[in-house]
Amino acid sequence: MLKAAGPNDTVNLGLIGVGIRGSQLMEEYSRIPGVNLAAAADLYDGYLQHAREFTQGKIKTTKHYEEILANKDLDAVVIATPDHWHRKMTLDALSAGKHVYIEKPLTWRLEDGPEIIAAEKRSGKVLMVGSGGKTTSLVAKTRELIAQGAIGQVRQIRMVNYRNSKEGAWIYPIPPDASPATIDWERFLGSAPKRAFSPEVFFRWRCWWEYSGGVATDLFVHLLTTLHEVMNVQAPVSVVSQGGLFKWKDGRTVPDVLESVFEYQQGFFAQMSVNLTNSSRAPGMVVYGEAGTLVMEPGKVIVTPEPVDRDVQSYGSLAWPKAARDQYLKAQAEAHPAVPRPEAKEVAVERGMGHTEYFIQSIREGKPSKENATEGHAAAGAAHLANRAYREGRKLRWDFVTNKVTAG
Known about the structure:
Elements: E1 11-16, H1 20-30, E2 35-41, H2 45-54, E3 60-62, H3 65-70, E4 76-79, H4 86-95, E5 99-103, H5 113-123, E6 127-130, H6 137-147, E7 154-162, H7 185-189, H8 199-203, H9 214-231, E8 238-244, E9 257-264, E10 268-275, E11 285-289, E12 292-297, E13 300-305, H10 322-335, E14 345-348, H11 355-365, H12 373-392, E15 396-399, E16 404-407
Parallel strand pairs: 1-2, 1-4, 2-3, 4-5, 5-6, 7-10
Antiparallel strand pairs: 7-11, 8-9, 8-15, 9-10, 11-12, 12-13, 13-14, 15-16
Helix pairs in contact: 4-5, 5-12, 6-9, 9-12
């Protein structure tokens, strides 16, 4: 049972990781009334300096996240670190009695999910995974339309994320002062294999399997979380993948193109594609139903009904004798008069509460997390499965309840 902090209570927040994404979260939380950014931990001096500048020197900084967790005055922590640190930091934070906002993906390994789920349940604290799309009003409206049968039984979903730039491929600029003197390299490595200092690895860690799951855990997870929400499903039962490293051959080990097909026991397939070599503006999500097609775009949902099948088969009767064919076409046309093709319907959606706002609301009001560890594991686990299918070159099946993976 969650214990509410009180609707007007100040929530004292500690930030673990204030790099690119962590600094975005710092800014988001600073806009929520009653949230106090009290402390920040990071391994790079420059990120800590930025945190002090952003808060006009009010925030306390350290390179040791353990000091954040030991601070009894902090109610919650935000973890935005490389993936290979997620398990330990999340477990440590829950053990220290903190509410936890953990950036997606929840885990670096498939095996870590059940352990975090169990720790969340024992703790009685709010754990919220940071897949912001899950709680948008746009996703809520899409879920509502699909549940109402606006496009009938769904059989196929197509979701994409295309980008074609150095920034999009995680080749971030390296600060001029990056060195072993300003970065705690050994702590960054943590449980990963030892290697010589590399500023490229430190600032572009998503490019290597040792610290990340690549495009699947960075980008598929967003798509999967959204998919699970709009379709009201838990997790896929199987996946196949194809992909490769084609353009960004900068020493990275993860692919820059990945195509996966996820199978769901509810009777539909989800095709997911990430392409870091093309910047097509294809819709992020298209849902194909037996009665129509739904396209989710920024700020709106477009629903196009399927046309009525009049069953006047000009092609199917092409080789018939002329008299028989003419009689058939006339009879079918009379039995099934032409009707106008259905027009697309556009549903505008206004912005609602943000993902971070829901986290604070859960703490203050004792409400369940909007994206708990089980939901986070379903999305991250599916991404891990996609990576394994790609690397092993075979179809894999996943039993979400037991977390077991089998071939076929």
